[in-house]
């Protein structure tokens, strides 16, 4: 054992400082002081920029849910593990850096105290074992990350790579730096253990120490110092790189998860706020700004979202718009907003300072601050947030090339990208750091509609039809009950018997919806559900002409005024008649009635028809039987509606209905369940033409046809229309022979219809 080997852990080497100690102390201190000074300066800037955002509402409540999210999503890496291989690589890296944080403390301690160990636990065999184990696991993670990036090279795979548009160069630098962290750690650890003796548990470090043991004590001291100083330099360099790159998520992701929407970022849209307060649409402030038209109008939580993006591209890989050749990538849009945020930071922070530390006023320029800017920065500040990038570089990919280089020649967000979103929720569901993409998209749409009056022309008809006729199709309210005349059983209509309230014997108010009342294919679903409820002996009632559009299409299109008008009208009616339990056939109605109307005074128990029918089957009130019309031996595939699945977590009941039919073979499409591909109708896209790329509905129809199924079961009237149109298109081309698109209710009805109506 060497002289130093006799020194206990954390005891200062008793001899006077020699050249090695002086070199270690002086250079190490200099590296630490300089690097931390730059790091603190950057951290203060980032903190100021994020805090400069507008107030965010309800980001601290639901503490148990937030604590659980931190445990499950951050510590447990749940969302990352949705993709197993990259997920496990990230688990190795994440937990590796937590465990190896002990060695980082030791390295910094070694600068000042040679032979320093982490207090109490530093030499525990189990701790030393875990440290060495995670060195290996992190190395495995690095290799996996490298292989993933090589096999998904965006330069070769183009937009089919989820890394298209990501900053690929810095990503490779980060992998290199992580490797150097491990390398320098083992160099200094090996020398340290060679100096201080063998420590049980440190199997890898002991092995390296044995290789170094023939060296002299002086050589080992210099190797240890080289390893320590190199290790510290790499760590601090990594810190500075993280603070100046997309890897900032290492620090801000846990914070973003902590302040994210709970229970999740899907389902109801956020109300519109001004200065941190909900807007009163009946009497809005004179200076109110509707939606977000400037980067400084986003909230601090939005800005935190932008800074948190990892550029992993999971959202992009699932986006129906991106996968059909449109310029919208949720990832690139968030990256664009981050770029805009940093570009305008000098103005935003100067305006905040001039405003006494308060947030810059929404919708206004600070002319005094603006006058003091350079012409270049002033042009950046005055650039519209949303606009056309027509004729500009990389127009079809919202300003980015494959390697993450952005054309700085136009507005941050291309208007074609903004209006391509179907609000399907795949981006939010996939995001491992809880970025709320849809909220940002809708806020920008609100500004475009309500302030700029700049939106797709097709929406004019939608807005007028809803406002004047109470439905997107522009049909007369008197036609809402037309489907009742086409059935051979009684349907109770509210008010026909002089009722002021829902009678006590009525179990459910059947909200037929606009599609269910006016669109032919959806009417078949309406009639099927009504008949099944009648067979099951469920007492239900419809509102008839008392119904009007819930406002969902208007809200997703950014017309919050129209949504509020429709919503308040419906809430007034439903509250007046004391509606409590509502069954719907449209997931969009389900989401709006059940999850958004509480924002405006409506509180109802809303179920989807597939949920109610599945319950009736399980209770024996509906019994599927074998019959010539029941589809025995038939292969059926099911398409998950976005607003039923991802937005409301209803996946099993529709499948149970299909599977309950005797002899039916339920086959899944490759993209199903939580990863289901959108039909293309959401986000008011139902009423907009697809003029860019290929059609989303045809893409999904092709996937359904490829399963070999003769029926495509759906559980949404919008999906019914869109996938039906896609199948019809292929049939006109000579394909998809015999394929039919039907609602799950119709599948069930064909099996139980042999039973006589009561």
Shape: globular
Q: What's the β-strand tally? A: 13
**What number is the mean pLDDT?**
92
Structural class designation: mainly alpha
- The helix fraction, in percent, is 40-55%
Provide the low-confidence segments as ranges.
1-14
Please give a structural write-up.
With 758 residues, this protein is mainly alpha-helical. It folds into 4 domains: 4-43 and 64-137 and 167-244, no CATH class; 283-355 and 366-450, no CATH class; 458-618, 3-Layer(aba) Sandwich (Rossmann fold); 635-752, Rossmann fold. Helices cover 50% and strands 5% of the residues. It is built from 30 helices and 13 strands. The chain has a 5-stranded parallel sheet with strand order 5-7-6-8-9, with helices on both faces. Helix 7 (168-196) crosses helix 8. It is globular and about 100 Å long.
Please sum up the structure shown.
By secondary structure, the protein is mainly alpha-helical. The chain contains 30 helices and 13 strands. The chain folds into four domains: 192 residues, no CATH class; 158 residues, no CATH class; 161 residues, Rossmann fold (3-Layer(aba) Sandwich), CATH 3.40.50; 118 residues, Rossmann fold (3-Layer(aba) Sandwich).
Features:
30 helices, 4 domains, Rossmann fold, disordered N terminus
SSE diagram, text form:
Elements: H1 19-51, H2 63-75, H3 84-99, H4 101-112, H5 125-151, H6 154-157, H7 168-196, H8 203-212, H9 217-243, H10 249-258, E1 273-274, E2 277-278, H11 300-308, H12 314-318, H13 330-343, H14 345-354, H15 367-371, H16 375-382, E3 386-387, E4 413-414, H17 415-418, H18 426-430, H19 437-450, H20 458-469, E5 492-493, E6 508-511, H21 513-518, H22 520-535, E7 540-542, H23 552-556, H24 560-576, E8 581-584, H25 587-596, E9 605-608, H26 609-618, E10 635-638, H27 652-660, E11 665-667, H28 696-706, E12 711-714, H29 717-732, E13 740-743, H30 744-752
Helix pairs in contact: 1-9, 2-10, 3-5, 4-9, 5-7, 7-8, 7-9, 10-11, 11-13, 22-30, 26-27, 27-30, 28-29
């Amino acid at each position: 054992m060497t002289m130093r080997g006799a020194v206990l852990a954390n005891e200062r080497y008793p001899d006077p400082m020699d050249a090695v100690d002086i070199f270690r102390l002086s250079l190490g201190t200099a590296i630490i002081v300089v690097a931390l000074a730059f790091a603190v300066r950057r951290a203060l800037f980032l903190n100021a920029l994020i805090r400069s955002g507008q107030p965010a509402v309800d980001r601290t409540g639901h503490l148990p849910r937030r604590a659980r999210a931190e445990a499950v999503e951050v510590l447990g890496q749940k969302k990352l593990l949705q993709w197993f291989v990259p997920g496990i690589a990230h688990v190795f890296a994440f937990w590796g850096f937590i465990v190896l944080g002990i060695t980082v403390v030791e390295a910094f301690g070694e600068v000042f105290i040679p032979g320093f160990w982490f207090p109490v636990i530093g030499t525990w065999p189990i701790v030393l074992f875990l440290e060495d184990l995670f060195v290996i696991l992190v190395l495995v993670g690095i290799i996996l990350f490298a292989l993933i990036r090589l096999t998904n090279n965006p330069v070769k795979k183009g937009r089919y790579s989820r890394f298209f548009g990501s900053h690929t160069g810095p990503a490779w630098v980060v992998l290199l730096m992580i490797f150097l962290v491990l390398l320098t750690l083992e160099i200094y650890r090996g020398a340290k253990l060679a100096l201080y003796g063998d420590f049980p548990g440190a199997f890898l470090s002991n092995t390296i120490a044995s290789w170094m043991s023939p060296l002299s004590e002086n050589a080992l001291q210099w190797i240890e110092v080289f390893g320590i100083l190199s290790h510290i330099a790499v760590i601090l360099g990594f810190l500075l790189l993280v603070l100046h790159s997309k890897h900032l998520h290492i620090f801000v992701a846990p914070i973003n998860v902590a302040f994210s929407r709970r229970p999740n970022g899907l389902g109801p849209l956020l109300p519109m706020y001004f200065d941190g307060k909900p807007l009163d649409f009946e009497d809005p402030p004179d200076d109110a700004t509707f939606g977000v038209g400037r980067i400084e109008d986003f909230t601090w939580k939005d800005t935190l979202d932008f800074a948190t993006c990892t550029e992993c591209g999971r959202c992009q890989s699932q986006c129906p718009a991106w996968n059909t050749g449109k310029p919208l990538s949720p990832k690139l849009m968030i990256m664009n907003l981050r770029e805009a945020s940093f570009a305008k930071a000098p103005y935003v922070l100067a305006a905040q300072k001039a405003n006494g530390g308060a947030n810059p006023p929404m919708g206004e320029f600070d002319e005094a601050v603006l006058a003091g800017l350079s012409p270049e920065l002033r042009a950046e500040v005055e650039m519209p947030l949303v606009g056309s990038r027509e004729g500009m570089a990389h127009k079809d990919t919202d300003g980015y090339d494959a390697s993450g280089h952005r054309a700085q020649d136009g507005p941050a967000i291309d208007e074609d990208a903004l209006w391509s979103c179907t609000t399907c929720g795949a981006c939010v569901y996939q995001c491992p750091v809880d970025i709320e993409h849809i909220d940002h998209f809708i806020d920008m749409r609100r500004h475009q509609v309500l302030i700029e009056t700049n939106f797709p022309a097709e929406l004019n008809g939608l807005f007028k039809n809803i406002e004047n006729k109470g439905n997107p199709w522009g049909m007369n309210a008197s036609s809402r009950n037309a489907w009742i005349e086409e059935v051979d059983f009684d349907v109770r209509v509210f008010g026909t018997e002089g009722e002021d309230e829902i009678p006590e014997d009525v179990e459910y108010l059947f909200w037929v919806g606009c599609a269910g009342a006016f669109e032919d294919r959806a009417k078949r679903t309406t009639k099927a559900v009504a008949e099944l409820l009648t067979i099951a002996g469920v007492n239900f009632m419809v509102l008839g002409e008392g119904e009007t559009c819930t406002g969902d299409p208007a809200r997703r299109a950014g017309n919050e005024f129209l949504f509020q008008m429709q919503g308040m009208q419906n809430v007034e009616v439903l509250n007046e008649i004391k509606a409590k339990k509502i069954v719907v056939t449209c997931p969009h109605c389900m989401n709006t009635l059940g999850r958004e109307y509480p924002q405006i005074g409506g509180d109802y128990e809303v179920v989807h028809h597939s949920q109610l029918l599945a319950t009736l089957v399980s209770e024996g009130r509906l019994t599927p039987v074998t019959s010539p019309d029941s589809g025995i031996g038939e292969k059926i595939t099911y398409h998950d509606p976005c607003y039923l699945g991802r937005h409301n977590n209803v996946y099993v009941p529709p499948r149970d209905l299909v599977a309950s039919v005797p002899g039916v073979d339920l086959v899944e499409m490759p993209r199903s369940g939580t990863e289901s591909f959108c039909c293309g109708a959401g986000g008011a896209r139902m009423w907009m033409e697809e003029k860019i790329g290929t059609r989303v509905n045809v893409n999904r129809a092709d996937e359904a046809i490829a399963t070999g199924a003769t029926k495509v079961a759906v559980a949404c009237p919008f999906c019914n229309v869109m996938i039906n149109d896609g199948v019809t298109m292929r049939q006109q081309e000579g394909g998809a022979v015999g394929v039919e698109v039907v609602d799950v209710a119709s599948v069930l009805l064909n099996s139980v219809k042999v039973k006589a109506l009561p």
